[in-house]
């Protein structure tokens, strides 16, 4: 699986300085540790566990599991019997044992240049303890679910860590999602409390978050589910109450005209609650397999899946992947540009970095606001050493050429990373050559919400790099490539990417629906975790992700369900049927191309198209807004009534070679669909 020697051709290496100090300094060392991690995971992960605090030690097998649905229920258990608290390990241990209290945990950089804040580990611990006491005063207890719908502010980190300090389970909803999406997630996880903010700016755009939160709570009430309490952070408000005992100043670009609806029966002010809260709070000691958080990801059925991660395994895995993949050193300034509403922000802004006592940049804004040099300005401002972003952002900035990058020094950079989707070689080479000046290795990481952390990834000094390849498996991860019959392929091959055994950070279930967990990830190929991605392996053993093989789209690094988009479209009174497919996009990776069949007697026009786009935006969020909507009097279907999406993808891309369409019930619809293609979709 891993080659005996590192390949020498067409590869890029890190600097000699990086190799001298790296945690994994060579390919030979990587291979030695990899073999140990697979053959003796208890020894490998047990040594890492010694760096953390355990109230009680584990009693059973270090890692126990069943991946085969034919042999019983699917399960994964790590360090069963051990008790700990992840917040204690992230904050108390760093402040009191490692003496890092005065070290900066976060440099917060707001949407507006000059809007900034520095928070040390000691200050973060105090705020987390205060808010833990606030949650307890509102009746939140161990095992309760708490919904968080906030912008990228320090208080978002405070809220999530306060939850885990008292043993509550956080469910963070990306602040770009709609009220409908928030409502759906609150109800699915039966949350007892909502934490939100008045609003925030994303570039020039003002988002009235409280209005959306109120709309979501009303939708919950209409469906018979009541949330009694909503805690509101005043981020844009200049209300004097908000400044009392507030660590964070109001945003520089205040918005005095922002209308913040207030329901005194439900709404409570974050700042006033914090004012009277003690800054001491004993952690709740949790079992290793107690729930840590729920994070929703799109499902191929259209209903989002609540991915559940648990305490000990996730802590070990995110801490280790962060340390080794970014080759974290004590003096690093690390910046991940993701939003905490996604798994990348959970694992590699909050949990992984804090577990290592790292200093991170927490960024509220956009890479193009107020200009396209914003990222490199921030890199120079904070002397960022390790930088982690999405291929979408790289492709976007490539469009503006080299000058906006090269007007800044970027001399502090040592490692560059990518996340969210496969990166095309052209973008990889621009990132490596222009941003990193050919001296920074690029760690192109493959992983999912479900995996908890990196599963296929280079290591900066150990792995020779190939532009666009996810390279080799991380420690403890055993990949395989299967054909349609479920047979493992050897050597150079292409097929379904699966994993043969668990690692500590893998998800444990779909919240409230273990059967869906088993069906989605284990039923197709018993004995394997099925990723849903296609993959190829080259002659050197490098893995290359080829994209989704189910009805999912990867738009700007965010996974979207075609079924979810189609469901939103057919809710419109004019639409009888809809189908959504992806077509390549030079910046976003994939764009949404939708086909709609209207009810009899209705006409497709620009007004209807705008209404449909608005409908999808309101039901799911702006990220899911279709780029193209085409009138489709008929859709290509088999005689059994199944829509042939393969044909629709060809039409969306204007590719006339359709392959075998002999199973179509009515082949004439294909010519009609080509004639009706959206004019702007070249």
CATH superfamily of the largest domain: ANL, N-terminal domain
Outline, from the CA principal axes? globular
Q: Main β-sheet: number of strands, strand sense, barrel status?
A: 8 strands, mixed
Count of DSSP strands? 30
Please state roughly what percent of the residues sit in beta strands, choosing from under 5%, 5-15%, 15-25%, 25-35%, 35-45% or over 45%.
15-25%
What is the helical fraction, as a range of percent?
Answer: 25-40%
**Intertermini distance:** 42 Å
**Rg for CA atoms:** 25 Å
Structural class: alpha/beta
Which key terms come to mind for this protein?
682 residues, alpha/beta, Rossmann fold, GMP Synthetase, Chain A, domain 3, 3 domains, 8-stranded mixed sheet, 7-stranded mixed sheet, 21 helices, 30 strands
């Amino acid at each position: 699986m891993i080659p005996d020697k590192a390949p020498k051709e067409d590869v890029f290496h890190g600097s000699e300085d990086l190799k001298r100090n790296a945690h994994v300094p060579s390919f030979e060392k990587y291979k030695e540790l990899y073999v140990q991690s697979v053959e003796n995971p208890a020894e490998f992960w047990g040594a890492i566990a010694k760096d953390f605090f355990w109230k009680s030690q584990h009693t059973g097998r270090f890692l126990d599991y069943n991946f085969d649905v034919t042999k019983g229920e699917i399960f994964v258990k790590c360090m069963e019997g051990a008790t700990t608290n992840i917040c204690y390990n992230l904050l108390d241990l760093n402040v009191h044992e490692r003496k890092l209290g005065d070290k900066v945990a976060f440099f917060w950089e707001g949407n507006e240049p000059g809007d900034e804040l520095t928070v040390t580990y000691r200050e973060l611990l105090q705020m987390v303890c205060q808010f833990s006491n606030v949650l307890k005063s509102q009746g939140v207890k161990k095992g309760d679910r708490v919904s968080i719908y906030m912008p990228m502010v320090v208080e978002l980190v405070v809220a999530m860590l306060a939850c885990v300090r008292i043993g509550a389970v956080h469910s963070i909803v990306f602040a770009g999602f709609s009220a409908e999406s928030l409502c759906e997630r609150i109800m699915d996880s039966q949350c007892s409390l909502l934490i939100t903010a008045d609003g925030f700016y994303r570039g020039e755009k003002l988002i009235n978050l409280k209005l959306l939160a109120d709309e979501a709570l009303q939708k919950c009430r209409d469906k018979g589910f009541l949330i009694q309490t909503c805690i509101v952070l005043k981020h844009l408000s200049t209300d004097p109450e908000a400044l009392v005992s507030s660590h964070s100043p109001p945003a520089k670009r205040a918005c005095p005209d922002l209308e913040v609806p207030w329901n005194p029966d439900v709404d409570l002010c974050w700042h006033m609650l914090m004012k009277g809260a003690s800054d001491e709070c004993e952690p709740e000691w949790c079992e290793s397999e107690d729930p840590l958080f729920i994070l929703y990801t799109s499902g191929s059925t259209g209903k989002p899946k609540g991915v559940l991660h648990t305490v000990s395994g996730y802590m070990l895995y995110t801490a280790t992947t962060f340390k080794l993949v970014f080759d974290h050193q004590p003096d690093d300034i690390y910046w991940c540009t993701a939003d905490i509403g996604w798994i990348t922000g959970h694992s590699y802004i909050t949990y992984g970095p804090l577990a290592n006592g790292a200093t991170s940049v927490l960024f509220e804004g956009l890479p193009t606001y107020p200009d396209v040099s914003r990222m490199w300005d921030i890199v120079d401002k904070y002397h960022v050493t390790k930088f982690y972003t999405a291929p979408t952002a790289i492709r976007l900035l490539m469009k503006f050429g080299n000058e906006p990058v090269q007007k800044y020094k970027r001399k502090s950079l040592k490692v560059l990373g990518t996340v969210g989707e496969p990166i095309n070689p052209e973008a990889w080479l621009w990132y490596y050559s222009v941003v990193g000046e050919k001296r920074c290795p690029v760690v192109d990481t493959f992983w999912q919400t479900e995996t908890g952390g990196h599963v296929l990834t280079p290591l900066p000094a150990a792995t020779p790099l190939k532009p666009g390849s996810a390279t080799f498996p991380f420690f403890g991860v055993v990949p395989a490539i299967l054909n349609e019959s479920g047979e493992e392929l050897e050597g150079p091959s292409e097929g379904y990417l699966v994993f043969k055994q668990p690692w500590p950070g893998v998800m444990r279930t779909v919240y409230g629906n273990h059967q869906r967990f088993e069906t989605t990830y284990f039923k197709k190929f018993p004995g394997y975790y099925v990723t849903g991605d296609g993959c190829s392996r080259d002659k050197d053993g490098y893995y290359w992700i080829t994209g989704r093989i189910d009805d999912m789209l990867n738009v700007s690094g965010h996974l979207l369900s075609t079924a979810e988009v189609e469901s939103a479209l057919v809710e419109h009174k004019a639409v009888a049927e809809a189908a959504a497919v992806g077509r390549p996009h030079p910046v976003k990776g994939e764009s949404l191309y939708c086909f709609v069949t209207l009810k009899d007697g209705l006409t497709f026009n620009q007004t209807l198209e705008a209404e449909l786009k608005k409908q999808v935006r309101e039901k799911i969020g702006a990220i899911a807004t279709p780029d193209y909507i085409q009138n489709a009097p008929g859709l290509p279907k088999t005689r059994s009534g199944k829509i042939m999406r393969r044909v629709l993808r060809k039409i969306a891309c204007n590719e006339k070679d359709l392959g075998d369409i002999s199973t179509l019930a009515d082949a004439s619809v294909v010519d009609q669909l080509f004639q009706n293609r959206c004019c702007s979709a070249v």
